[in-house]
Specification:
With about 500 residues, the protein is mainly alpha-helical. Helices cover about 60% and strands about 5% of the residues.
Length: about 500
């Protein structure tokens, strides 16, 4: 085993170790994670929220036991593979050992540590971008058409994970036209590769068609409720923060791609990042959508700096260049990860407030950062619903209806009774089982007026009680209430069908 291989294995091992050390066991999963895990129980070629790739991973996790350790393993794996691809890119660019270590360090101590703590499509999205850029690098270097076909497969898998990868093509197309690589458009293999990619994503496109393209509704809703509030200056500012310890390396890559003869063949990458960022800005995209752009530029920058710092007194700057990403990571480590207890954060709220981390999307400061609060209260909710369910008569004919997908997903993940909680929110609107007549209803409501729910629903049941609520004051779901309604006077399935129809028509 070579020295380089041993060092690479060390980086991969450290990556996995850090991903698990950065999470405190006091926190549950985040609400999106429960939805993605529940998709394993409803496999199909598309979902209202995401393409199907995540559901396939969830199915594997389910087959292997559905443990928290396994759930966290996959995003950590995708992060480790991102380091590996950057390492291989540096090797392809003939980078030395210093370049390899610098590149791996920059990728390791970056926003990916935070991204890779969550079981969401984002971790694989970054990996897909990095691999697709790598296939372009290999094609430019070898002029071997096989890399076009490999690239088509990579794009298709990335597309089936998150549609965000389309922005890579949007940025790449005009970049190719601006360089001598425009000749690629006269290569028949490009179009055969494109047909291969289209064939792989076609089942998802067909699903979108058969379901009236919910992706467009999702994008419209996203644009109206969230993206409209995106500040373009903040978008650009936050790009600097994602790889703040690696800015020297990334900006060095821009200079090298423009002015170094050794990298002249890869100048298309310089134009690609410009056009891709312009596309993101035009669509008012969220800042983290662009994280996948940067790992490949770390490879270019690392190789360039290894050439600049290889002789004379400049060699002594190499350890400093490697140390910079780690030094920037240390203060971020203290506040950016759920590795401190809620009590600790409340007692040391000053540094969190100073960085604006306590401000939620409602514009107000709270006890914890919103992301952390979104990882509390779920287990409590599930256990209480489980207990209420067991106490009901005719419990097998009980509908569990929640206000949001986090509540439904958490109940389905934690409860021992294999309950099928649903919601009119997100993908759950398609997962109602209306084949049996329900006589009981467990209603999980977000914190609001208790009397309103009782007045609205109790006339349809013989008995109605407020059974319990979420008492964890640090949880975003704090105050959410659980109602139990028994002895249905009507067939509530008709009301459910009407509500589902209304939601779908609105969409």
């Amino acid at each position: 085993m070579t020295k380089k291989t041993i060092i690479l294995i060390g980086f991969i091992g450290l990556k996995f170790l850090l991903q698990f050390l950065l999470l405190s066991s006091e926190y549950d999963l985040q609400r999106d994670e429960y939805l993605h895990l529940d998709q394993a129980n409803h496999l199909t070629w598309g979902y209202l929220s995401v393409p199907p790739f995540t559901s396939w991973t969830s199915y594997i996790i389910q087959l292997l036991g559905n443990s928290i350790l396994l759930i966290k393993f996959f995003p950590a794996l995708y992060g480790a593979l991102t380091i590996f691809i950057v390492w291989k890119a540096i090797e392809e660019l003939n980078g030395n050992l210093f370049a390899l270590i610098l590149g791996a360090t920059c990728v390791l101590f970056s926003a990916l540590l935070r991204l890779n703590t969550l079981y969401q499509p984002n971790s694989f999205d970054v990996l897909s971008w990095t691999v697709l850029y790598f296939t372009l690098l290999k094609y430019i270097k070898t002029d071997n058409a096989k890399w076009l076909y490999i690239g088509a497969v990579v794009f298709a898998i990335g597309f089936l994970n998150k549609y965000n990868i389309l922005f890579l093509l949007i940025g790449l197309f005009p970049s190719l036209l601006l360089t001598k690589h425009r000749k690629l458009f006269f290569n028949p293999n490009l179009y055969f590769a494109a047909l291969l990619g289209f064939a792989l994503i076609f089942p998802n496109l067909l699903w979108q068609y058969n379901n009236n393209f919910p992706v467009f509704h999702h994008l419209k809703q996203l644009a109206e409720t969230q993206l409209v509030n995106v500040n373009r200056f903040d978008f650009l500012k936050n790009q600097l923060l994602f790889f703040i310890g690696s800015l020297l390396v990334i900006f060095a890559s821009f200079y090298a791609l423009l002015f170094r003869k050794s990298l002249k063949e890869y100048r298309v990458f310089f134009f690609s990042i410009l056009f891709t960022l312009i596309a993101f800005l035009n669509f008012r995209a969220k800042d983290y959508y662009a994280i996948g752009i940067y790992p490949i530029y770390i490879a270019f920058g690392s190789v360039y700096l290894s050439e600049v710092l290889k002789e004379g007194w400049k060699r002594y700057l190499q350890p400093i260049a490697i140390a910079i990403p780690l030094l920037f990571f240390i203060p971020i480590y203290k506040v950016a990860f759920p590795n401190k207890s809620p009590e600790y954060i409340v007692q040391h709220s000053g540094c969190y407030k100073k960085m604006g981390l306590l401000r939620w999307e409602d514009g107000k400061d709270h006890l914890l950062p919103q992301d952390f609060a979104d990882m509390l209260g779920w287990r409590e909710l599930a256990l209480k619903v489980d207990s209420i369910y067991l106490s009901l008569p005719n419990k097998n004919n009980t509908l569990i209806l929640c206000d949001n997908y986090g509540q439904a997903g958490a109940i389905n993940y934690y409860t021992k009774q294999k309950l099928n909680a649903v919601s009119f929110n997100a993908d759950y609107i398609n997962w109602f089982d209306l084949s049996k007549k329900y006589v009981n209803l467990i209603r999980v409501k977000e914190a609001n007026d208790v009397n309103a729910e009782l007045q609205e629903t109790s006339p349809f049941f013989q008995n109605s009680i407020l059974a319990d609520s979420i008492t964890n004051r640090y949880a975003r779901e704090y105050g959410s209430t659980i109602f139990a309604f028994t002895g249905a006077k009507i067939d509530i399935r008709e009301r459910i069908r009407d509500e589902i129809e209304q939601k779908k028509n609105y969409r």
